[in-house]
Design brief:
9 strands; 13 helices; disordered C terminus; 384 residues; two-stranded antiparallel sheet
Amino acid sequence: MKYRTYPGTDISTSEVGFGVWTLAAGWWGDFTDDEAIALLHRAYDLGITLFDTADTYGNGRADELVGRAFADRRDKVTISSKVGYDFYNHPDARRGQQEIPHNPDPAFIREAVEKQLRRLGTDVIDVLAFHNVKEDHVPDDGIWDTFQRLQDEGKIRSWGGALGPSNGYLFEGMDLIRDRKVKSLQLINNILEPFPGQNLTEEAERTGWTGIQVRVTHSSGMLEGKYTEDTQFAKNDHRRHRPRSWLVNGLKKLESLRWLHEGRDMTLGQAALKWLLACTFGRRHSDAYLAEIDRAVERVVVDHLMRLAGTAPMPQVRAVAAGQLMQIRTSYGFEHTPNSPEQAHRALLSADITRFLEREYTPEQRITPPAIPPGAPIGDDGEF
């Protein structure tokens, strides 16, 4: 096992961690307390010292498992945790994969941390994150000032944010790194789902003050190489929310990844972890490749502007889109990320780009008619 230190801290921990959500929530199979603790101990024996929990995992059960497992060796492990979801006052709000309400109130955050410390059986949490940060949480000084006060009081050693629950949240992540200068940022990244994790990792490397904690490293088990087209997930299994196309297409993609592990004395799952640990994301692509991505991005930008404005003269739309595209590229590094124009297109159709553009355009700035019918091809050749 190799070990790394969170930037700007003295917190050194294993570069491979153990996510305790899988043991506590019943969404990845059911484990008794004894089974769960035995797995935690096995991970520790193999050199893992980073254990990631959250107060909402099993409504506190994950914390209790970690506390029991490492009560006799607390100083040998790093506890990374998260707060922010209010399962205390909304115990019946969870429905399937839906989120329960957040509570960013400083008093609630402080109370949640105190309760978590008691469940963990410790007097300090090493790395604390606000759980699944949303757009309105980033500028909320109350959240981050509370975290800093908790650190000053010695109840936590460092703090940051976690992105989710789904993949995405590029702009929240960028703002947490650039504006909040978080010491840790938890995000999704794997060889099948590299966007926007690669962008955020590159920005963390560039600034030098944020450590990255990667989750969904095996694309919900796909990169363990054990699924077949006949694989079925239990009704309460977290993976059941994935569409069947994810399973079928993922299996096809795995065929192109055989070179990662075949003949190398490692499993696909091990290769997936080594890819994440070894990747350098600060690479650049050819001008032709970037031009392809730009065209895909511009199609999305123009489409959004058309919806935003209703109808507009095409030269005006294209001019505004070009300015937006340049701003997006230079501010958020899109030129470094997507593995294909199609991936860029899909990524930018997400809520991220919608929120960004709507934030940039007030009603007074919107483009005015006349008229291109909604849904009409853009340009004589339909290219845009």
